[in-house]
Amino acid sequence: MSYILDLSKSVYEISKEHPDIIEIMKELGFESITAPGMINTAGRFMTIPKGALIKNISMDKIKEVFKSKGYEVKE
């Protein structure tokens, strides 16, 4: 069974549905996501595509990693 990763939702919303995305995002280069309060502050308005743009991380790489972890990526 795959999980749906809706890229239009905020990181906060996604993390509440799928808490394991925090560790996956950390592995992808979003190290600050585990900082205390980050999900509850910036995560409320930040989406994965916006974060990827800021951190200069390829969306293709992000999609590939999430797909390998059993997610279906919805854009």
From TrEMBL:
Q: What is this protein called?
A: DUF1858 domain-containing protein
Q: Which InterPro entries match?
A: DUF1858, ScdA-like_N_sf
- Which Gene3D superfamilies does its entry note? SP0561-like
- Where does the record place the DUF1858 domain? 6-62
Signal sequence region: none
Sorted alphabetically, which Pfam families does this protein's record hold?
A: DUF1858 (PF08984)
